[in-house]
What we know:
By secondary structure, this protein is of the alpha/beta class. It has ten helices and nine strands. The longest helix is centred in the C-terminal third of the chain and has 17 residues, at 204-220.
Amino acid sequence: MSNYEQIAVQTRDRVTTITLNRPDRLNAWTGRMADELRGAVGHAGTDPDSRCIVITGAGRGFCAGADMEGRQGPADQGKAGSGATPPPTDVSFPNAPGPDLGDTYPGRFGYFYHCPKPIIAAINGPCAGIGLIMALYADLRFADEAAKFTTAFAARGLIAEHGIAWLLPRLVGEAHALDLLFSSRKFTGAEAQAMGLVNKAMSGDTLMDHVGAVAGTLANDVSPRAVAIMKRQVRASYSQSFAQSLAIADEEMSRSFSTFDFKEGVQSFVERRPPAFRDL
């Protein structure tokens, strides 16, 4: 999929930036946006010219949740709200290194976890409902300290959907998670940082520069293979015992010693030069 209507995609310097692009609606979520985002992440995840994915919003919002009022075409009917059916676009990463996640993470955003490239959410404004859930599936989150967040569901007579009941307590703890879910209260990027929901909150005029620097490091200074395996190790560990996780680590470390990236990592350190790691 390359002709996007509700997102914009650009790959530069090994970083793919996906911008939710309905600024007049604060990038409110639709079925078409879901399909386009899924396709764009799927493409970037297998594109050798991309090593890191950044998701942000156009204008003053990140994603204000499901579009409850916007007029939608046939592709959006029945999918703009809280519907449980995932977008139909097929996304798979059959050649991704690391432990096989199998069917551990199904659902609307499970493909974020399966994608071998690191995914960063740059939360530049209002982030609510399904927009918040999508951001929680990212590997790293950075936010405008003044951005407003809300789970929103209880205030709409809805429940904790799309895996947020599993995700949120693991990020912020049960007490914070139940507070945010039960109350549907609004909270800022600064509070999101304090409770561990985002990695860092900062002034809006520095957000994209900071995200660009982090993405640049992930795209150029570290091994794509190592990052892909570590991402899968962590996500696989949620359903493993310590012994199982340790056994996989031992196996993957043994494999790493024979790879180009290990040899290049050591050689570049000895020669005091930037590493030239291979693409996935």
